[in-house]
Amino acid sequence: MKIAVDVMGGDNAPQVEVEGAVAAAREHGMSIILVGDQERIKAELAKYDIKGLDISIHHASEVVGMHDSASDAIRKKKDSSIRVAFELVKAGEADAVVSAGNSGATMAAGMYVLKRLDGIDRPAIAQVFPTLVGYAVVLDVGGNVDCKPFHLVQFAIMGAVYAKHIMGIKNPRIGLLSNGEEDSKGNELTRETSQLLKNISFEYSGYVEGRDIFAGTSEVVVCDGFVGNIVLKLSEGLAEAVSSMLREEISSSFICKLGYLLSRAAFQRFKKKVDYAEYGGAPLLGINGVGMICHGGSSVKAIKNAIRFANECAAKGVNQRMAEKLAENFSSYNNVESVPQNIAG
Amino acid sequence: MKIAVDVMGGDNAPQVEVEGAVAAAREHGMSIILVGDQERIKAELAKYDIKGLDISIHHASEVVGMHDSASDAIRKKKDSSIRVAFELVKAGEADAVVSAGNSGATMAAGMYVLKRLDGIDRPAIAQVFPTLVGYAVVLDVGGNVDCKPFHLVQFAIMGAVYAKHIMGIKNPRIGLLSNGEEDSKGNELTRETSQLLKNISFEYSGYVEGRDIFAGTSEVVVCDGFVGNIVLKLSEGLAEAVSSMLREEISSSFICKLGYLLSRAAFQRFKKKVDYAEYGGAPLLGINGVGMICHGGSSVKAIKNAIRFANECAAKGVNQRMAEKLAENFSSYNNVESVPQNIAG
Distance of CA B72 to CAs B101, B106, B263, B337, Å? Predict the structure, then answer.
């Protein structure tokens, strides 16, 4: 497996990406192609002893900025690092892409270059959240703002395959995010989706509420990208706000500060548990290939772990399994009369 | 001002409600009518010295349970404590209602008995959130799952009036919750709503993201009830998960525990800041009267504070001010040609 790393996208590019790639190659034996401005990459690589590591460079002359529009970036910047990285996958020279750049552009480039997986109308960005009992994958947290029920069913199946084969959960439970657990709750979209999910070949647990994400009652939480993005940013924002408020209170007296210093190890273990860097990036599911979208402010560790997970997705043939499950479920749907519409759209 | 307290609704009814009411009467000189089973209320009141306090009892023979459907409860249980409490307001015997019962039933009873405020199509439940710099009111966090743009505009105006007159914010800024700050983001609902909000007589700051709620960039955050309910429960769930994970880590060693004991004062100040009991309940905005919906598991302090805020809403004539602002804004809309539809619906 070879991973194409777009080194030009993140807030601290290409420094953090190159360092993360070197760490992934050294610690996990990953094979990596660094995609971006070759002079800058060479300058970064010169900082490390990379003898014996499988790291090569593929030049790309352009960069998609955080404020570029996704589709313009693809059409106008044909030699951008993110697009070139996906082209390497298309040409069979790489097996997966990792990028900390503009997530809309990454999604657009992935779809444009590699096309969608059979059975998928819209790819989704999945985000792994820590829960009280493990992890849950929430999707879509990306750009699919106005979804149809069959889109959410596709998300559910992709999420369940990801949970099973990458997160190692034998029988992942799928929850549909809603404003209450009773069947009478939900909006038009979720009520129709819920009916469809009752017939898929994975365990569907019905509606779950916002609090259930962290309680860990489902390993797969499905929602449209508008709601999912609010959930993602709210969680990040709340975690930051809690730390900031606590820090302020703790700094307000000597005794509190002393106490904090003593219990700091506990806070650090907690931080490690909830740190997104542990799982590195958010997989872009539903394209003909593997893409891992990292936070713009990713740390070296986040990049390293994203490369590791991207490699695992490619090695385990997650897309092939998704395509099989999609075909299996969508063909059976077409034969079920009780389903309110042809969910294959 | 006289506050009708439905004492039968909460998880620990009528005990907590009666104790909270006694505290509100004693500490803040509130005038209170306790509504519910008179024998049980008398038994609870016997525990306190209520001499000189303005507390009376109004008997109601039925109770709406947490699992009763809202509309059935109103139609079938005509002598339920929540419905009778609103009837007291209608009859002019009370000025506001406080309940820790079934929030759907409270909303339904309020609408059924008191009717909607002029200019309002759907009442909303507003929730005050602590932020890094103060407080923000988020609405709707209740039951309006599939909203039209003009519903959200009505929520925005009600929220702004509440923020101004009850939260004491001179020029409240209104943010529309979305999946990104740029105008190109949002879903069909928010894009149309955003155009409408640009013309109202309050400061509209555009789209805000999930993280901005806690950063405090807007004092009023508008969303539909599906999204708002997820936001509310996610925040509660995340806060609980963070406490629980931290507690586990802290208990794992003696030094960490000792450290925690020393810094406990900081944690307690933090807890007080984020404790919903401080602001008591979520106002039900948009009915012809004042209703305050409390958490089912409300503490005595939460009930006490909810009574205080309900009294303040009634005393300050918040509804009158909302009606004025709604009339002012909606009449001007009807004359603006650029508005895509008649937002008065």
Answer: 15, 12, 50, 43
Q: CA torsion B158→B164→B168→B171, rounded to 10°?
A: 140
pLDDT digits (tens, 9 = 90+) for B23-56: 999 999 999 999 999 999 999 999 999 999 999 9
Pick from B131, B209, B260: CB nearest A263 = B260
C-alpha distance from residue B202 to each of B153, B171, B329, B345 (Å): 11, 8, 10, 21
The residues of chain B scoring below 70 in pLDDT are 274-277, 332-345
Locate tokens 């069959």: which residue?
A150
Which DSSP letter does residue A296 get? Answer: T
Q: Using an 8 Å Cβ cutoff, are B137 and B155 in contact?
A: no
Using the beta-carbon criterion (under 8 Å), do A213 and B131 form an inter-chain contact?
no
d(CA B300, nearest CA chain A) in Å: 24
Q: Tokens 């109601």 identify what position?
A: B60
Interface of A with B in 26-55 (CB under 8 A): none
- b/e sequence B93-127, b meaning 16+ C-beta within 10 Å: ebbbbbbbbbbbbbbbbbbebbeebebbebbbbbb
Angle of the B38-45 helix axis to the B15-28 helix axis, nearest 10 = 60
Nearest residue in A to B147, CA atom: A187
CB contact under 8 Å between B234 and A235, yes or no, is: yes
Which DSSP string corresponds to A218-276?
Answer: -SEEE--HHHHHHHHHHHHHHHHHHHHHHHHHHTTSHHHHHHHHHHHHHHHHHHHHH-G
Using DSSP's 3-state secondary structure scheme, residue A341 falls into coil
B178 touches chain A (CB under 8 A): yes
Question: Which amino acid is located at A288 in the chain?
Answer: N
Q: Where are the beta strands (DSSP E) in chain A?
A: 2-6, 31-36, 55-59, 96-99, 124-130, 135-139, 173-177, 203-208, 220-222, 282-285, 290-293
Q: Are strands A31-36 and A2-6 parallel, antiparallel or unpaired?
A: parallel
Tell me what pLDDT residue A92 has: 97
Write down the pLDDT at residue A342: 36
| pLDDT (0 to 100) of residue A340 | 37
Q: Are B168 and B193 in contact (CB under 8 A)?
A: no
Q: Which 3 state secondary structure label does DSSP give A60?
A: coil
Cα–Cα distance between A149 and A194 in angstroms, integer? Answer: 8
Q: Does A71 touch chain B (CB under 8 A)?
A: no
Q: What is the pLDDT of residues B84-129, one digit of tens each?
A: 999 999 999 999 999 999 888 999 999 999 999 988 999 999 999 9
**Contact residues, chain A, for B211 at CB < 8 Å:** 233-234, 236-237, 240
Q: Judge whether A232 and A141 are in contact, CB under 8 Å.
A: yes
Which residues in chain A show pLDDT less than 50? 334-345
Q: What is the pLDDT of residue B276?
A: 66
Find the residue in A nearest to B238 (Cα): A214
Instruction: State the DSSP code for B58.
Output: E
- pLDDT at residue B62 in the model: 94
Chain B residues 132-161 with CB within 8 Å of chain A = 132, 143, 145-146
Residue A246 confidence (pLDDT): 76
Alpha-carbon gap, residue B239 to A106, rounded angstroms: 32
Beta-bridge partner residues of A208: A177
Q: Which residues of B touch A266 (CB under 8 A)?
A: 246, 249-250, 252-253, 256, 259-260
Q: Which two tokens stand for residue A227?
A: 């709601």
